[in-house]
Amino acid sequence: MSDSLRIALVAEGITDYEILDAAVESMLNGRSYILKLLQPEGSIAFTGKGSAGHFGGGWKGVYQWCLQAVQRSGGKLRDDPLFLSYDLLLLHLDADVAGEDPAHSKIDPIPELAGVLPCEQPCPPPTTTTELLRCVFLSWVGEAGIPPRTVICTPSKSTEAWVMAAFFQNDKEMEKKGWECHPKPESRLAQQPVNVRFAKTQADYAALRTDFKAKWPYVVAHLPEARRFQSDFHAAIPPYHE
Fold this sequence. Notes:
Layout: E1 5-10, H1 14-28, E2 33-39, H2 42-45, H3 58-73, E3 88-92, H4 127-140, E4 150-153, H5 159-167, H6 172-177, H7 185-189, H8 202-207, H9 209-222, H10 224-236
Parallel strand pairs: 1-2, 1-3, 3-4
């Protein structure tokens, strides 16, 4: 029997972990794997106490993790010692981060990102923004291109666009503004009928995990960023040996 595929995940939040874990299980189609949440820190993120570890949650936590990875590796993510323990690294960043202006924020400013963010472009098409954001993301880890054994995941505008496409395929507001261009897909969750409504919480997303896994092929077929994630994932994983 072959060993399980060892996957590390750096994500904005714990709900993203639940969705990406379900997507990974669908994409691996029965292959054994272990998914370890590195950021936010898994042991803390699952406590439900509102803490996300040393770096905090959200995109700024991802940014701080990237800076530490560059320091740990000596300048390039591909040289990070974490690849001694993992076969694959998933890096997640919602595309709405492209609209952030942290250099001029009154709360927790990041001056070194002046001129880098914001980089948001008109949508559609979403790819105009996600391509720029992916370049920004790579610069945080000292890379000009995606390094080996690494997959970048940039849902547009957020992972909730994938959730909406999976569970509320007839949502008129998402259709009107575009499934990957609606600025706040999370806001549509609360607008669904009471009998099918759920919240963006780790508990609710975990309960829907099996359903999302089954619906992942539909999401891939209809949302280009999901399709790119799946394509890049399959290209990056090592071959399966019995």
